[in-house]
Amino acid sequence: LTEPAIVGSVLGADYARLGEEVADLTAAGVGRIQWDVMDRRFVPNLTFGPDVVAACRGHSDLHFEAHLMVQEPDPLLADFAAAGCGTLIVHAETCPHLHRTLARIRDLGCRAGVAVNPSTPLGFVRHLLDQLDQVVIMTVNPGFGGQDYIASMEEKVAELRSLVDRSGTAVTIEVDGGISRSTARRAWCAGAELLVAGSAVLAHPDGKRAAVAELHRAVA
Ligand code: DX5
Predict the structure, then answer these.
(1) Separation of 8 CA from ligand 1 center, angstroms?
(2) 194 contacts 173 by C-beta, under 8 angstroms
């Protein structure tokens, strides 16, 4: 990635027109599409299964990320890979055998991502950077869109930036939650390369294209 990419989350999309919403986000200039998969166990919300992702695969040529906010991600990995997700993101908090889970994701031919909640230290990923393609710093408590950005996470982003730069690996740093025109620059300056945006794009009064352009200008 040579410039920060805005990743479009479809969590707050119009589910009656999901394919069209994915196509609109693609046309609006997001770099990737993120599917917030929730099981109402790990987080207090229930969203998409792999069939929904597969149904939208043909509406965009963008890279799909599956953000698995689920208590047991391992049984779901192959299905989301088959649905067309190129990156599978599991939560450190739900993977007691994280090293093995990451190997399974790569064995499926997908990029391996780990997300950490606001209270989870980077120690969980410190020794796995060569097994990883992406680390997601949650800047909200997962479960819902439209929440406030937790600015104290910028210290964690900066710590991860330093860790990755010193490791010589190519791990991508993504920030997820509460990204808007005012918070995007702060997250980017802290070291993030991918910024996940849901409500700031989907609920923007001037439409998705204007919203994405605004976020790109915020980090230019
Ligand atoms: C939280 C979700 C959200 C979503 C983006 O569980 O992960 O962060 O992707 O939602 P906004 O951009 O509305 O915070």
Answers:
(1) 10
(2) yes
Q: Which residues, including other chains, have CB under 8 Å from residue 193's CB and lie 6 or more apart?
A: 1, 4, 5, 172, 173, 174
pLDDT of residue 220: 87
Q: What CA dihedral angle connects 158, 109, 7 and 130, to 10 degrees?
A: 0
Q: Give me the pLDDT at residue 85, please.
A: 98
> At 206, phi and psi to the nearest 5?
-95, 5
Q: What is the DSSP string of the chain?
A: --SPEEEEE-TTS-GGGHHHHHHHHHHHT-SEEEEEEEBSSSSS-B---HHHHHHHGGG--SEEEEEEESS--GGGHHHHHHTTEEEEEEEGGG-TTHHHHHHHHHHTT-EEEEEE-TT--THHHHTTGGG-SEEEEESS-TT-SSPPP-GGGHHHHHHHHHHHHHHT--PEEEEESS--HHHHHHHHHHT-SEEEESHHHHT-TT-HHHHHHHHHHHH-
Q: Which of 21, 33, 69, 196 to mutate to test the pocket of ligand 1 (most atoms within 8 A of CB)?
A: 196
State residue 42's pLDDT score. Answer: 98
Q: Which tokens belong to 45?
A: 């919300």
Task: Return d(Cα 62, Cα 60) in angstroms, integer.
Answer: 5
**Which regions in the chain score pLDDT beneath 70?**
1-4
Between CA 143 and CA 47 the distance in angstroms is 10
